[in-house]
Specification:
single chain, Hypothetical protein af1432, 9 helices, 0% strand, binds fe (ii) ion
Length: 163
């Protein structure tokens, strides 16, 4: 039975020697899971969210190797097939794998959000990116007002950044 710990372990191995990326997706996974649990997601949606958070940036490494850059559009192109291979190899259900691949391919597509797994993945990634990028208070406030919609994600944003 595939589980999230195995997936995180596989991702850590895949990103060997890149502690910054590893610390990033470990943090995004933890925040996504915490928001998902506190928002009352059902078990299957929570599994999808956690798996998607663990692998959401899986395309970065191959983009850097292939193109020498890793913008959002390239990642969304290269990431889903890699995520699919990894989840299938670990035995995740096909319905879970397909949804995770879709989320990996849309995690920078902020105008297409119409579901909780997608929304919470974006919120968790933002909470980590706003910190890691050293964003200004103005940028953070703008993201808070435009991008966050769960009560838990909004609360975490206010508390983490002292808004
Ligand atoms: Fe990310």
């Amino acid at each position: 039975m595939a589980d999230i710990a195995q997936l995180l372990g596989t991702m850590i191995t895949y990103y060997n020697g890149d502690p910054k990326r590893i610390q990033h997706f470990v943090k995004v996974h933890d925040l996504a899971r915490t928001i998902g649990v506190l928002e009352g997601l059902d078990q299957k949606t929570l599994l999808i969210l956690e798996a998607a958070a663990a692998v959401h940036d899986i395309g970065i490494r191959i983009c850097e190797l292939k193109y020498g850059k890793c913008d959002g559009a390239l990642q969304e192109l290269e990431g889903p097939p890699l995520a699919g291979d990894m989840l299938r190899a670990l035995g995740f259900d096909e319905s879970v794998t397909e949804r995770v691949c879709w989320l990996v391919g849309h995690h920078h597509s902020y105008n297409e959000i119409d579901s909780w797994d997608h929304q919470i993945l974006v919120e968790a990634d933002l909470l980590v990116n706003l910190y890691e990028d050293g964003s200004s208070k103005e940028t953070i406030r703008n993201a808070y007002e435009k991008m966050f919609s769960t009560e838990t994600g909004k609360l975490f944003c206010r508390k983490i950044f002292d808004l």
